[in-house]
Amino acid sequence: MIQYQINMPISAEQFIDVLRRSTLGERRPIDDHECMEGMVSNSNLLVTAWDGGKLVGVARSMTDFHYACYLSDLAVDCDYQRQGIGRQLQILTQQQLGRHCKLILIAAPAANAYYGHLGYTNLPRCWVLDRDQGLQD
User: What are the N-acetyltransferase domain coordinates in residue numbering (predicted)?
Assistant: First the structure.
């Protein structure tokens, strides 16, 4: 039986491992330990799914808890997908937020169709600025 935890600390190694076992590891800097450690330690909302002592899912967010919650990473081990774990991670994330707070995310290309049936609205107005582009002095 899957157990869920709110803000239970995890290590960068555990985070990297679950990303590798999901499809999200392909789009994250999993070989940059410093970056991965910063991602884990600077998140302010972390919902995890566990099968015994094995981390099988994670929803990692940055939020003000009242208006906006950026769900930066939603990853479920491929062996555990299609069991409702990702949905439950999002439900538990949303339950931690105030009534006006919106979940905001950027969908992985392969997962883009997943979010519509959950009630998300697809908005074409997202912009991304990489560190090495633009805003130069």
Answer: 6-137
Q: Which tens digits make up the pLDDT trace of 75-108? A: 999 999 999 999 999 999 999 999 999 999 988 7
Q: Which CATH superfamily is domain 3-118 in?
A: Gcn5-related N-acetyltransferase (GNAT) (3.40.630.30)
Q: What's CA 17's distance to the chain center, in Å?
A: 14
- Tokens 């290309």 label which residue? 109
91: helix, coil or strand? helix
Q: Helix, strand or coil for residue 46?
A: strand
Structure confidence at residue 24 (pLDDT): 85
